[in-house]
Every structure is written in C-alpha cells, then in structure tokens.
Design a protein that fits this description.
Blueprint (H helix, E strand, L loop, with lengths): L2 E5 L2 E3 L5 E8 L6 E8 L6 E6 L6 E3 L7 E6 L4 E6 L8 E9 L18 E2 L3 E5 L2
C-alpha cells in the first residue's frame, strides 16, 4: 500500500521558516518524481515545487521561487520542502504527491501540473500570521 505522509506544518509569524517532510512507503522512491502542492481556504489547489528522481532537478512556482527549496533523500525515502521568508499568503494545506517514471527518471511534461501525480498525501497545515 502506497503512503505519502507529510509533517512539519504549524503556525509561524511572517518572515519565519518551516521545513516540511514527506515520507514515502510502499513504492520505489527512486522511480518517482515528488511534487508539492498547496490549497488555501476557498481556493483551488496550486503547485509549489517539484524535485525529480535521478538528477534531482527542481522546479518552482513563481510565487515561492527564491524562498522555498525542495529536496529529496533516497535513503530516507523522504522529500523536504524548506520554506523561508514565509508570508501570510503562504497559508494553506500543503500536500506532497508522487509521479511514476520507472527507472528512466526525469520530469513529466509539466512538472508542476497536478494531473501527472497519482499518489497523494493527506496534507499538513501551514499558517502564517502575526
């Protein structure tokens, strides 16, 4: 059974930092691209970042570029999302998701399009408020 479990969410003041983790089980981690998405109250889910398998290429939404850093640790079957310079508009539930590539690796056609991601975690809440 495939599971993606996010953790590390919480409440921080503007300008603060959080590091989210996404632990994967039940799948071959190195055969999957990991994406991060978020959904704010009353809004559609939107992409945040993606890290590929193999070369660990990274992709970011414009709204987080330069503030967030996505990474992965194959030995730990974990992806991380380091979030610095948090703003109130970053408040959302954050989800990680997995896209299967097999041994070939590499990003989907649009690494930040959620249609390519089949497995999803349950989400972790991030609240940025003074």
């Amino acid at each position: 059974q495939v599971q993606l479990v996010e953790s590390g969410g919480g409440s921080v003041q503007p300008g603060g930092s959080l590091r989210l983790s996404c632990v994967a089980s039940g799948l071959t981690f190195d055969y999957h691209v990991i994406g991060w998405f978020r959904q704010a109250p009353g809004k559609k889910r939107e992409p945040v970042a993606c890290v590929t398998n193999g070369a660990s290429q990274t992709y970011y939404a414009a709204s987080v570029k330069g503030r967030f850093t996505v990474s992965r640790d194959s030995a730990a079957q974990t992806s991380y999302l380091q979030m610095n310079g948090l703003k109130p508009e970053d408040t959302a539930i954050y989800y990680c998701a997995a896209h299967y590539t097999g041994s070939v690796g590499g990003p989907p056609r649009d690494p930040l399009d959620e249609i390519y991601y089949y497995y999803w975690g349950q989400g972790t809440q991030v609240t940025v408020s003074s």
